[in-house]
Specification:
Length: 108
Amino acid sequence: MTNGEFLVVTTTHDDEARARELAAAAVRERLAACAQVYPVRSVYWWDGEVRDGAEWRVDLKTRAALAERLTAFLVAQHSYDTPEVVGVPVAAGSAAYLDWVAAETADR
């Protein structure tokens, strides 16, 4: 168990290049140790109607202590009016991997 020390923070973007830029910027700023970017299909309610569209999901691995900073960073960098930024606690994981996440997101 990790006792909520680590999170997977998710956001989405409708442009692959921009999603990759967000991922790289968060890693470069040491707000996340790594990120995966992959295509998804999103169905959502917006402006009074159901929408359906292609998006790019970005999953960022980080420490819970960085959640507020990472959220603020993603919102500030995002082009959406209301970007999805949600964090899910990591319940368990490889000790070596989680140690790596901690080391790569440590204050420098």
